[in-house]
Amino acid sequence: MRRRFFAFLREAIRRYFVAGILFFAPIGVTIWAIVSIIVWLDNLLLPRFIKLVLPGIEDPPSIPLVGMLFTFVVIIFLGVIARHLLGGEFQRAWERLLARVPVARSIYGGVKQLVEAIFASSGQSARFNRVVLLEYPRRGVYALAFTTGPARGIVQEVTELEMINCFVPTTPNPTSGFYLLVPEADLTEVDLSVEDAFKLVMSAGLVTPDNVPLADSTRRKTS
């Protein structure tokens, strides 16, 4: 009787512990990420600016959200300068200078392309946010992927096909994955938002969006 009671108690504790983790972990991680970003922005520029203006202050006071607002205003101010005062000629001269430094040009080029992809115009962002199915890692096995636009330059010139840049995320960490060049004809577009696709990948299929319609091309291929 006692053994059965302890077995029941152990199973109940395990069940409720798992339920608590599943409920609070996403909330806790989200709150932690938001708070970390706000604190980082609060400590980014404002304390240094206060020390520069008022050098007599040893420990500048930290007021929540003020540093984040100050950083935002500084970025807007730099954007005005870059757009109206410096112009494209300054940027081209800066890029020519960095092109002579092997490590710096690689870092600058990669960061610039990433930022331009994230803050692209509406027409480009729709292309960037396509969710597709492709046969990977072999024929007959499908994987969800995100397109990042058509291939350009030398990678496009070596083939007569229209190649598309694709990112195949991994489970359960979708921030890592594989970069693939896939012909447009081999992609099957899925009527699925990027957010829902990430949920599907992160949960390994456990969290499936309800009533997700497939594109016409998907229906034709799977019929």
What does it look like?
- The protein has 223 residues and is of the alpha+beta class.
- The chain has helices at 2-42, 46-53, 66-98, 102-118, 122-128, 154-157, 194-202, 216-222; strands spanning 131-135, 142-150, 163-169, 177-183, 188-189.
- Among the domains are: 66-118, no CATH class; 122-222, no CATH class.
- The protein is built from eight helices and five strands; from the N terminus they run H-H-H-H-H-E-E-H-E-E-E-H-H.
- The chain has a five-stranded antiparallel beta sheet.
- Helix 1 crosses helix 3.
- The protein starts with a helix and ends with a helix.
- 9% of the residues are buried.
- The model is unreliable at 121-126 and 211-223 (pLDDT under 50).
* Average predicted confidence as pLDDT: 76
What share of residues are in beta strands? 5-15%
- The Cα radius of gyration reads 25 Å
How would you classify the quaternary structure? single chain
Q: Could you give the count of β-strands?
A: 5
- Count of DSSP helices? 8
Helix percentage range = 55-70%
Which outline best applies?
flat
How are strands sequenced across the largest beta sheet? 4-3-2-1-5
Characterize the largest beta sheet: strand count, sense, and whether it forms a barrel. Answer: 5 strands, antiparallel
Helix-strand makeup class: alpha+beta
Separation of the first and last Cα atoms? 57 Å
Taking pLDDT < 50 over at least 5 consecutive residues as the criterion, the unreliable ranges are 121-126, 211-223
Question: Could you state the order of secondary-structure elements as H and E?
Answer: HHHHHEEHEEEHH
